[in-house]
Amino acid sequence: SGDNRPPNMLEFELMVRDALRDGQTVSYRVVAVEVGNAPHPVAVVMQARGSGGAGVPLNAETLIRNWNHSE
Description:
The structure is a single chain. Strand 2 and strand 3 form a beta hairpin. By secondary structure, the protein is an alpha+beta fold. The two termini are 28 Å apart. The protein has a three-stranded antiparallel β-sheet, with helices on one face. The protein is elongated. The protein is 21% helix and 32% strand.
């Protein structure tokens, strides 16, 4: 089985991985976006903040749409 993550999720997770490899302490948060009485979130917001370590602190946020949600 291949990697079926949305491209922006993979890019986001690779940024977090790189920050961790650079020695940053990373706070990682995922927040569900819910609409009405839908049984599942329509999307999630992924946020990551890094401590900086030896480089520029990670400060990233992205919206990942739930492709399984029918509108």
